[in-house]
Amino acid sequence: MSVDYLAKRLGLFVLILWLASTVNFVLPRLGGQDPVRAQLGAQAAMGGASQVGMKQMIAEYDQRFGLDKPILVQYFTYLNDTLHFEFNYSMAGYPTRVIELIGRSLPWTITLLTVTTLLAWIIGTLLGATLVWGNAPRIVRLLMPPILTMSAIPFFLLGLLLIYFLGFQLHWFPLSGGYDQGLLPSLQPSFLLNMAYHSILPALAIILASIGTWTLGMRGLMIMTTGEDYLIFAEAKGLRDRTVFLRYAIRNALLPQLTALALALGNIVAGAVLVEVIFQYPGVGSLLYQGIRSSDFFVIQGVVFMIIVSIGLATLILDLVYPLLDPRISYAKR
Predict the structure, then answer these.
(1) Is 216 within 8 Å of 148 (Cβ atoms)?
(2) Stated pTM of the model
């Protein structure tokens, strides 16, 4: 890989980050809502407090959050802060900083989405490859209709069905939350087991809704691979059917599937927002939802910027690793 190409890719990565960050700054402000006034008004209404002196309080908070400055000054301050991963204070959770809120939510989302994405990818890839091959077990063919049906159901709707049947009717799993009330998050085995128990339903919703997509993708790739010259040559050499299947068919059909997996892993930080909201799971998706509901500009900007960085990095790394996955791909000039 040439130095010029690497420099171009890094430059494009920085450009994409800047453009996406600019959009991230502008979009929350398009609604025209005053977030400080909305927060103070909601707090006064809930507490039954008088709104005397509200203008002075709004002016004080605007100054503290930097919202009293011209929009261009706010924009350049925002760019400088994001370079240092500093996203100011949360308006709804003042005096907690946004980076602290993200730090609390990120491990929950990464753990849940990494495990579920990898499991769905592995199961779906194996099922899709096995379907095309001649000796597919009968149980695989019987499982395909329900799997493909569930892939057409959105995550959140499947989550509601699981909550109703497995949680509400059968009482097998808790209905919501990341752990039992009264427990303090820790690395103790008892807490980790409780956390895993609470994550089963949201994990099932994501896995069951994703397997069909991965299966269809791998099935199409295997169909394209079947009949290629290298497969015919491998069979003509007298290699065992299992060897041809694993070392020749799957290996050559897997590259686009790995590409999709890398992009899916890059989207992990975004979380399955609606699934987390439905299950009241304490992840990044729930944090983003709460920030949008309360017009908390800094929470929205912080979470979306982390998503932008994760997707951009995943794409960059994938682009650089591609020649290692497939020697036929080269970025060198000819």
Answers:
(1) yes
(2) 0.77
Number of domains the chain contains? 1
H helices of the chain, in order, are: 3-26, 35-47, 54-65, 71-83, 98-132, 138-151, 155-162, 189-225, 229-236, 241-243, 251-266, 273-278, 284-293, 297-325
pLDDT tens-place string over residues 170-213: 888 888 888 888 777 777 888 888 888 888 888 888 888 888 88
Residue 186 belongs to some domain of the structure: yes
Both structure tokens of 248: 């020749």
CA distance 63 to 80: 18
Q: Which domain holds residue 130?
A: 105-226+253-293
290-324 tens-digit pLDDT: 888 877 878 888 888 888 888 888 778 877 777 77
- Identify whether 162 is part of a domain: yes
- On whether the CB atoms of residues 120 and 205 are closer than 8 A, the answer is no
Tell me whether residue 151 is in a domain. Answer: yes
65 lies in a domain?
no
